[in-house]
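Budget justification note: compute hours in this period were largely spent on complex prediction jobs such as the one shown. Inputs:
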Amino acid sequence: MTEFLMPSLGADMEDGTLVEWRKKSGDTVKRGDIIAEVETQKGLIEIEVFDEGVIEKLLIKEGEKVPVGTPMALINPDGAEAEAKKETASMKKEVKLQPIEEKAEQKVMEKSTKEIRIRATPIAKKIAQDKGIDLSQVTGTGENGAITKDDVENVIVQKGEISKTEKGEKPVDNLVEVEPEKTEAQPFEAELYKMEKQPVEVKKERALTPAEAIRSAVAAAMSKSNREIPHYYLEKRVDMSKAMAWIKETNRERPIQKRLLPAALFIKAVASSLDEVSELNAIWENGLQLKNEINIGFVVSLRTGGIIVPVILQADSKSVGEIMEVLNDLIPRARALKLRSSELSDSTITITNIGEGSADKVFGVIYPPQVAIIGFGNITEQAFAENGMLGIRPVVDVTLAGDHRATDGITGSRFLGSLNKYLQNPESL
Amino acid sequence: MNEEEIKNIIFQLLKKIAPDTEPSALQPDENIREVLNIDSFDSLQFIVSLNEKLGIEIPEEDYGKISTLKSLINYLLAKLKSQLS
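Corresponding output:
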């Protein structure tokens, strides 16, 4: 029997709320099928299944919020009769962690400290116990997300401020929640309904808006990066004359719908360079782990603020045109917060492309547990000297931020050299 | 198709791309992309949707000629006219 677990869609994801099962008990599933929709900080995500078989049992109810790694369903690979009743029963207990109906909140607060394993420093635990703070509702900023003394004290401060305005009636968990608590597929309608009914209560009761949820997901991931990853930075000016001429030439032959943007060429050039400098296509988890597949995360900024990083899977085996097609599909869905689980996880490196008409250079913050981020600035006309001649050329400043635990400047430098080589020979990509 | 109709189509398409903005508040000489904060990807989507709606193909080398509302409308009017003749 295979367990289907709540997937992790990035280092910053702690839990997710099951909104809808797309399959039911007895259904046959194959790799890549959408099994469920889960509400996360990064929107409503379609979760794909990676096993084949028959769904034996759905363990989680719609509306339940469970931590990453919680078994959500049992899948029988042979489609044979279930025999593991005992197994199922014990799992059921384990996953019933956080019923999220509002009435149940108080109870959860009391019980959850026992039910969920919480990483916290001893002093943090002590203070929390003394002050009656529920650690399961505190976001840890210490190592591996452990809750520190500061985290608990922050909550106490917040709680104090809230009590002043709210007569201390409500639990403070909404303030420190990083995840919007949503019990329905139409959270906004639910919100509206609530607003009409209890206009005064809205502020303290409301869940995070999607923009706020994204903001806090970015905050968590970037804080972790800055806390744990010693970054080193490199920069290279790249002459884009040949690349831009190649794009122009190619686009002339393409229908409008298939026109290329420089971003597609950048992604392909990064993928090809990673084939040569594979140390940067890796994650750092108890040491450097090189990855075989080159899955490139591409930063998409949201109009309401915040960013989301969908992934271009196996970018090295795709042509520039195919990468552009992927972008045409991914970017609008990323902006609408409608991505699939495989499009948010598994990236092995990130590209941030600050784009046309904006800043000249961008120095990225590595998305953990990755070990590098490549930044492309604005392509501008600059004075560029080569072979004793000075000319005006389109130039892009490419930066690399590397994890110095994993690699050294020399590795990053080799990578940028390779990237430059590919951008000087775009037809080879 | 007259100027007013083209303008409305432009506003409609821009609103789809930048729903948080008010395209109809654009001044004739303002840079559309800068004012509405449209990146190169959305800019391409806009050009694709103009093509789908009006049947006008805007080549890459003409991107510089359509940066403001006024220039874009004039460009489209000229193109429509030449298509008719």
